[in-house]
Amino acid sequence: MAMMTGDQYVESIRRMNMKIFMFGEQISSAADNPILRPSLNSVKATYDLAHSPEYEDLMTVKSHVTGKKINRFTHIHHSAEDLVKKVKMQRLCGQKTASCFQRCVGLDAFNSLFSTTFECDKKHGTKYHQNFLEFLKEAQEKDWTVDGAMTDPKGDRGLSPGKQADPDLYLHVVERRKDGIVVRGAKAHQTGICNSHQVVVMPTIAMGPEDKDYAVSFAVPLDAENLFMIVGRQSCDTRKLEGSNLDVGNCQYGGMEALTIFDNVFVPNNRIFMDGETDFSGMLVERFAGYHRQSYGGCKVGVGDVLIGAAALAADYNGAQKASHVKDKIIEMIHLNETLYSSGIACSAEGFKTESGNYLIDLLLANVCKQNVTRFPYEITRLAEDLAGGLMVTAPSEKDLRHPKLGPYIEKYLRGVASVPTETRLKILRLIENLTLGTAAVGYRTESMHGAGSPQAQRIVISRQGNIEMKKQLAKAIACIE
Ligand code: SF4
Ligand code: FE
């Protein structure tokens, strides 16, 4: 089975025996939990869209390993065109779900590990690339969703991994056996982890020789022994328990994150992609982060499209669509959103071939892309709230709207233009609320700031890649300075 349908995917997750904790209780699967199911639906969309003839060119591709048709989320990019299509696919998925659809972290882990293991083997004579290829082949054949886990809790940010008061604040190897390694630690903010079949763990920072045990990368299934997840809260998450599509704003989709604990997890030798090669830790981090910063030039833009559409509808329903300031605000939102897309496309079009044969984005442009993402969605959000008006946060619940006595008053007094039912107007306002302040705000707002690395992480790369010396030479030449 090289490509699962959405329903087959849901079943495959339901069959797994994951240990997921939420509100102090253990649940076995996201598939049947009302708070988590919307996040599973978002990943399911990446399977369903791949079976739609309309999106075949974006969502599917020929595997370079097996020659079979696969979902692009499991692909190794082999051209700049592949990189561009990745961003377009992400914009499409963002438009269809208005959420984080979670599957990109695995794709970005695949591509960063593909090239890094190749270069590591070349220098150290290790066998990680072969291990990785076998894993990739299985991931493509089984059409897995794979979580890419990079972010360690990090404890005291002023101390390196091995100098922390608690040695587990960065995930590390605690035992080396003949048949594999045992690891302990945690990965924080793991997007989509309980909707994934496997997790690929990577180090979170460049490391020095003294941190050998922390320079570790591997894959394990998410129902591995001694691995468990603690789901993070989202603003308004328990609204999903109330059974009202109107009140949640997004009828089907959502995202999820969890603190994932590796409490002495065994990793067999054939699933190890790095173990002690500290000189390649920085490369893996830089490449994974680069790919994921490119990703934001697609996914956030797609969600932005939905938010702009919702803001424009809110203006229509208020009868304000012809006001020049309203038109101008919508133009500004489009301008900001397409600027994000431009850098996502640009870093892809400028992609280049690595020694292993896959394509890497232009790192400077990918970091500029993500730096813009730390700002523009906030302005787009501000403008959407401006156009929505205060009712977005003061409207009564669906129960009140359906109430025999209260409903008619809500219908009467909260109506905008006479031709649009009050319920329709409230639906759009709830969607804007969901994207700006509710459960989806995790993915659209705060994740825009901190996902794929906080703003300062991009500025460090920008300063490294910005080539200021070359620019000084240009200025000297123009000014005739010897
Ligand atoms: Fe994909 Fe965007 Fe979610 Fe990252 S934040 S997993 S790029 S949808
Ligand atoms: Fe993310």
Description:
This protein is of the alpha+beta class and 482 residues long. The protein has 2 domains: 6-279, Butyryl-CoA Dehydrogenase, subunit A, domain 2, CATH 2.40.110; 283-465, Butyryl-CoA Dehydrogenase, subunit A, domain 3 (Up-down Bundle), CATH 1.20.140.10. It has helices at residues 6-15, 37-48, 56-59, 80-97, 104-124, 128-142, 245-248, 281-318, 324-349, 363-373, 376-388, 391-394, 398-402, 407-413, 422-436, 441-450, 455-465, 468-478; strands at residues 20-22, 25-27, 60-62, 69-71, 146-149, 172-176, 180-191, 198-201, 216-221, 227-231, 257-268, 272-275, 352-353, 359-360. The strands form 4 sheets. A 6-stranded mixed sheet has the order 2-1-10-11-7-6, with no helix packed on it. Helix 5 (104-124) packs antiparallel against helix 8 and helix 8 (281-318) packs across helix 10 (363-373). The protein starts with 5 loop residues before the first helix and ends with a helix. The model has no long low-confidence stretch (mean pLDDT 97). The protein binds iron/sulfur cluster and fe (iii) ion. Iron/sulfur cluster binds at residues 100-102, 104-105, 191, 295-296, 299, 443, 447, 451. The site of fe (iii) ion has 4 residues, from loops.
